[in-house]
Design goal:
The chain is of the alpha+beta class and about 180 residues long. The protein has nine helices and six strands, in the order E-E-E-E-E-E-H-H-H-H-H-H-H-H-H.
């Protein structure tokens, strides 16, 4: 499967292709480039038994697309539309929990917009995770473990940010005990 190509873009009727002399790859692409490098995300559609390629201008767009795909209620074409939105407006909408911003995307209804927004807010708090030098999955596991016991998410996050030692899988239970004692 292709993940990166440096070819030319061709549009024919309603289809978009990334081409070289021998190969044409049909892609979904909303960018403005006609030539240069494209970052591809191959998505296997189990229902149709096909591979759909989504093309991006930057690797950051592709990484964001992969993160948005992890959100429940978001299908690949919807995730692709979300990633095409201006980054600053997307970040602001997530930060301010602006559901109307997401309702403007075709196929997202009010209830779905709220669910997607909450999960995006949950998934996109990378700054806090990077400051603490732990991986996102471990961070989520700690928070979800404590939320199960009705601890407030913001209190958990602020306590984790103040935690002095490196957080690893091996000391996760100790971290949870310390966080509980400080909340």
């Amino acid at each position: 499967m292709f993940h990166y190509v440096n070819w030319e873009l061709k549009r024919e009727q309603n289809n978009t292709f990334i081409v070289n002399w021998f190969i044409w790859i049909q892609v979904l692409y909303f960018g403005k480039k006609e030539k240069w490098e494209f970052f591809l995300y191959p998505h296997l559609d189990d229902n149709k038994k096909t591979i759909n390629y989504f093309a991006f201008d930057t690797s950051l767009q592709k990484d964001t697309f992969e993160e948005v795909l992890k959100v429940n209620w978001v299908w690949p074409k919807t995730a692709f539309q979300i990633v095409q939105l201006p980054k600053d407006k997307l970040d602001l909408a997530i930060k301010t929990l602006d559901a109307k911003f997401f309702q403007s995307i075709p196929g997202i209804w009010p209830k779905s917009a709220k669910k997607i927004l909450l999960e995006l807010k949950w998934n996109f708090e990378f700054d806090d995770i990077q400051k603490m030098d732990i991986d996102q999955k471990l961070y989520k596991n700690i928070i979800s473990s404590l939320r199960w016991f009705w601890y407030d998410t913001s209190s958990i996050k602020s306590t984790l940010q103040k935690y002095d030692w490196k957080i690893t899988k091996e000391n996760m239970s100790e971290v949870i005990k310390r966080v509980i004692s400080q909340i």
